[in-house]
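Section 5: illustrative case.
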């Protein structure tokens, strides 16, 4: 029982470190190479790293349907972000690319650790709460070093409320619920719907214009998500 408790603690700490590492790596990557390249490398590398680590841990080859859906969705993300335009690939910062890949790896670590905890009888709510609370404690020194004056402003409080409630609490509770019912590799690939959703919101809310390539990219992402959502096939056993 003691050994089991130690494993839970280790998994929670590892997951929290993944949460903590993701943010600075992601934002450094987007700052270095722009939002399009930084986002597509981070989001695109996450399911690949998740699949590789999962295969190493379970000693099983990835499911063919997952490979096909992931490849299709990643191609779609590249098209939506406009990375087929050579002008966007000029002067790419290698350190920024490394940081974005690091963000994808951090996400993979967090997702795998969360799935492992949930698979050992923890509820998704408890799992998300434990990992994010631990990550919050780890990040306190960063907050103190960066300064807290902005928290006393109306805009600062509104930002904290939005990021804390909507983009973190609600989003990751849904993420944990998905992890409790699906293989971690599937969940990781399904999150590639994020850039598709952002693009559609830009079209509907901000009246942005879509290129033909972006439209094809959205269709490719949707096809990858649908392919993963189809019933049947062999289910991957995760850690």
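Designed sequence:
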């Amino acid at each position: 029982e003691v050994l089991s408790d130690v494993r839970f603690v280790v998994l929670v700490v590892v997951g929290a470190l993944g949460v903590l590492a993701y943010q600075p790596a992601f934002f450094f990557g987007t700052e270095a190479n722009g939002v399009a390249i930084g986002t597509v490398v981070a989001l695109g590398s996450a399911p690949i790293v998740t699949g590789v680590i999962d295969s190493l841990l379970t000693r099983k080859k990835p499911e063919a349907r997952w490979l096909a859906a992931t490849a299709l969705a990643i191609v779609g993300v590249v098209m939506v972000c406009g990375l087929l335009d050579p002008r966007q690939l000029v002067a790419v910062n290698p350190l920024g690319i490394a940081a974005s890949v690091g963000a994808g790896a951090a996400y993979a670590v967090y997702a795998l650790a969360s799935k492992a905890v949930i698979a050992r009888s923890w509820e998704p709510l408890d799992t998300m709460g434990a990992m994010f609370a631990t990550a919050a404690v780890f990040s306190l020194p960063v907050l103190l070093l960066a300064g807290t004056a902005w928290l006393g402003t109306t805009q600062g409080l509104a930002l904290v409320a939005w990021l804390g409630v909507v983009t973190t609490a609600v989003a990751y509770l849904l993420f944990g619920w998905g992890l409790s019912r699906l293989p971690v590799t599937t969940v990781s690939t399904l999150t590639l719907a994020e850039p598709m959703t952002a693009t559609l919101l830009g079209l509907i809310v901000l009246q942005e214009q879509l290129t033909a390539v972006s439209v094809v990219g959205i269709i490719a992402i949707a096809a990858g998500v649908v392919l993963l959502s189809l019933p049947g096939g062999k289910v991957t056993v995760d850690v």
